[in-house]
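Notes from the 1:1 (GR / supervisor)

We went over the backlog. Supervisor wanted to see one worked example end to end before approving the batch request, so GR pasted a single chain during the call. The sequence is below; no edits were made to it. Supervisor asked that the structure be written out right there so they could see what the output format looks like.
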Amino acid sequence: MKHGKIKFPFTIIILVLGIVLGFQIQKTFSNDHLNDSIAKFSDVLTYTEKYYMEDVDSPKLVEAAINGMLTKLDPHSVYIPAKQLESVEESFRGDFEGIGIEYQVVNDTLTVVSPITGGPSEALGIMSGDRIVKIDGISVVGINNEDVRKKLRGKAGTKVKVSILRPGIIRLQDYEITRDKIPIYSVDTHFMIDNRTGYISISRFSETTYDEVLSALNDLNSKGMKQLIFDLRGNPGGYLNQAVKISDLFLDGRKKIVYTKGRKEEFNEEYYSGEYSAFEKLPLIILVNKGSASASEIVSGAVQDWDRGLIVGETTFGKGLVQRQFTLPDNSALRLTISQYFTPSGRLIQRDYKNKKDKDEYYSQAGNSKEEEGNNLNHKAEGDSSLKVFKTNGGRIVYGGGGITPDYIVKTEDITDYTTELLKNNIFYQFVLQYLDNHASEIKTKYHADLNLFLNDFKISSGTVKDFTDFASSKNVKMNEEEFKKDNAYIAVRLKAQIARNFWKNEGWYQVLLKTDNQIEKAETLFQEAKDLAKLK
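Structure output shown during the call:
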């Protein structure tokens, strides 16, 4: 598959860096010079406030100082302002309170991308493509994303009125929605690819991921699953304990999954499997790419080190650092690296960051663009590297210090600059929104909510593609004939997937895209190798 596969409250008291960092961290990270350093910073800030030629914004100066300090550490120690912390935490907590929609502001109009499964908007019949034009009787044409959150989020049990313009219906539809706790799912989708092969894709490791994965596995098992593709592509990680529990689903007996080492002994920990699951002998292939990081690398590293399954795709990001969050007095937070994590064989997954000029260079060099496609069970692809050598449980050579390199390398197909511009400018969604205004009724009538029928029967016509490219030109994405011809098939598939998502949410989206996913296609042919590697009958 081709991928295009992302001010703060402060009271003016002596709440400078000494309190902001000292009280929270001094107990753990103290040294003889800490108090002198805090006093030095306090003096600089005091002189600046008193004598600088213009008025200064002390909170911004302090935050700039914190960010500057963290640039001298590692790329993953970060400061999170109070206003950002809530949204960052809710994505990993697994829920928020509101009306339960995914949305975009398109041409100044608040548009429902999809009602969230199990939320109050879905229960009331709010649909993909609905335009919310009023909230509590006030027009919201021209609203921005921040104001959407302010107006639609709120405590569970509170009410909000929305007026919706629905294609094909002249009059506004009025709804009174009772806000509720809305689940944020980390399992994007799960389904049977064929009568033997289950598929699960997870987007991050949140507080609920293990429960979601176990539920998905049980559902697939009831549908006859005999083998599994576990998709961690683009998964940036999350909670370590969730990675451990998910690894334990596939590992039998008591096996080391991951261990951590830090400067402080209290941060040295070891994690083992031990809980029985029905999926310990299930033939397993894990898909990864350069966007797979942290917890994704814990799972794939443990599976690889124990020769439990086959890792397929491209070399992962290489994030082997563990952060602990310290909440600060103004409700901002510091996420500080406290240790490194290692796979069962002893591999450090973290790649080099000390020899990079800045974070941009570090992030842009994720993965390994020079690796050659093909069988890499003996990891000869890394053989000429300076990385440290380790061995799996079965004696295969693997390497540490550069992410997880797959056992079978399959590269993502590149897209052209033309298609990249289409994606960056949200042209696919905007066009399909307009397309469905005219064709949604006939699609509903013809396919009767039958996704399989849609997958096998629906075609994007050349006329529709021409309308799409004309629409793109009207949105200032200039046509490039040569690049369009190269990506023509992908563009048609992407349009079909966008239409499918409108009716079948993520299940429709993924099932269309996976039909032309070269990494999935290859993975489906490798289950015998996966079984042989794991010594499964």
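Supervisor's comment: The chain has 17 helices and 22 strands.
Batch request approved.
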